[in-house]
Design goal:
It contains 12 helices and 14 strands. With 373 residues, it is α/β, with parallel strands linked by helices. A 7-stranded mixed beta sheet has the order 2-10-9-8-5-3-4, with helices on both faces. Strands 11-14-13 form a 3-stranded antiparallel beta sheet, with helices on one face. The site of pyridoxal-5'-phosphate has 11 residues, from helix 3.
Length: 373
């Protein structure tokens, strides 16, 4: 088998990301039917690895469902098939992906949106009041709000939910396997994530993790969707060790390699490495006057950088692409002033240094003293 060609571009976007050589090589070797025993073994392995990364020990009855579809598919699956009847979904929003959760929630459920404004702290006082007044609530929130780069306080929200016996659904689509988040203490009912971001595999798969008992009761809920119905997926996984429909087998094969690499590196070491890369990126940007640390907790996944003076994003994007780098536009109110650079996937410090060499050719820097990080 010949190795796949390595990517020509360095992807500095939060997804898709550059995959490692081992993952890319396996992509060329997929020949497996999803109705064979070896597929069941493969699926079991990736499910166990996902739960391991979520901090669940093997003795805890928990489940990871593997869906074919991007992160939005997993979010829609939860909001369409895992909300109990007569339950209000309370969505906490402070950016584009919280807003997307709210839109999906409102398609299927009675929904209340607690919007704090882009980049602002979530309003937990209002949430506590709402939880005290409403007995049947599922709170939905984003862990890493990818549009702003900020982390939301999942543990604090989980404590409130626990106190008021509310369920908690966390979209960790961009943060899982990078910023620490744990299902171990049972504060999160359902967590979603995807293959193509911090897990550093190819995009196209998404996952819903939770306690087995919480998945088992979904069969009692009225059926409101089919393909992404989690009760169907849970049944196929527990009864046959399979997926109900034809999954993206090749992506699951490559996912296994990515997850094995995460286990081999160890989560803590991996987190320290990703912190180091984000810090290097931010220090170099700050030295050029293109970054100032936010007052709130930031994800290690990406950095919102200021556009160099006099350069609009489309022009910067075009010139960076010519130099071999893919960058992202900022979203919402940040658009026009910022661009996004991510340091997950198969990225090294050398790649970041090459990025700055290219940036300095495009926009010669005015170096400033490194500001506080
Ligand atoms: C936090 C968050 N949620 C949901 C999504 C949607 O994921 P996808 O584009 O894979 O459907 C994204 C994508 O960037 C995200 O960052």
């Amino acid at each position: 088998v010949t190795a796949c060609p390595l990517p020509r571009y360095t992807l500095l976007c939060p997804g898709p990301v550059n995959v490692g050589r081992r993952v890319a090589e396996v992509a060329c070797q997929c020949a497996l039917s999803h109705r064979e025993e070896s597929f069941c073994t493969l699926l079991r392995t990736v499910q166990q690895d996902l739960l391991h990364i979520a901090g669940i020990d093997p003795a805890t009855p928990a489940t990871a469902l593997v869906l074919t579809g991007s992160g939005t598919a997993a979010n829609e699956a939860v909001l369409a098939s895992a909300v109990a009847p007569e339950t209000t979904v309370v969505v906490l929003t402070n950016g584009a992906f919280g807003e997307q959760l709210a839109a999906i929630a409102a398609t299927y459920n009675r929904t209340v949106v607690l919007d704090s404004g882009w980049g602002e702290k979530l309003d937990l006082t209002r949430l506590a009041r709402l939880l005290a007044e409403n007995p049947r609530v599922m709170v939905a929130m984003v862990h890493h709000e990818t549009s702003t780069g900020l982390l939301n306080p999942v543990a604090e929200v989980a404590n409130l939910c626990r106190r008021h016996r509310a369920q908690l659904f966390v979209d960790a689509v961009s943060s899982f396997a990078a910023d620490p988040i744990s299902l171990a203490d049972g504060g999160i009912t359902f967590l979603t994530t995807s293959s193509g971001m911090a897990i550093a595999s190819f995009p196209g798969l998404s996952f819903v993790l939770g306690r087995t008992a919480d998945f088992a009761r979904l069969g009692d809920y009225p059926v409101r969707n089919h393909y992404l119905n989690l009760s169907r997926h849970f049944q196929a996984a527990t009864e046959d060790g399979q997926t109900p429909d034809t999954p993206a087998v090749s992506l699951i094969t490559t996912l296994k390699v990515s997850l094995a690499e995460i286990r081999r590196e160890g989560f803590d070491r991996r987190y320290r490495r990703l912190c180091g890369l984000a810090m290097h990126m931010r220090q170099q940007l700050a030295a050029r006057g293109l970054y100032q640390a936010a007052a709130r907790a930031q994800s290690v996944v990406l950095t919102n950088a200021r556009l160099p003076r006099g350069l609009l994003f489309p022009e910067l994007q075009r010139q960076m692409k010519e130099q071999g780098f893919v960058i992202y536009d900022a979203k919402g109110p940040l658009r026009g002033k910022f661009f996004q650079v991510s340091t997950i996937g198969d990225i090294t410090r050398t790649d970041i240094d090459r990025f700055f060499a290219a940036l300095d050719r495009i926009a010669p820097p005015v170096f400033t003293e490194v500001q506080l990080l």
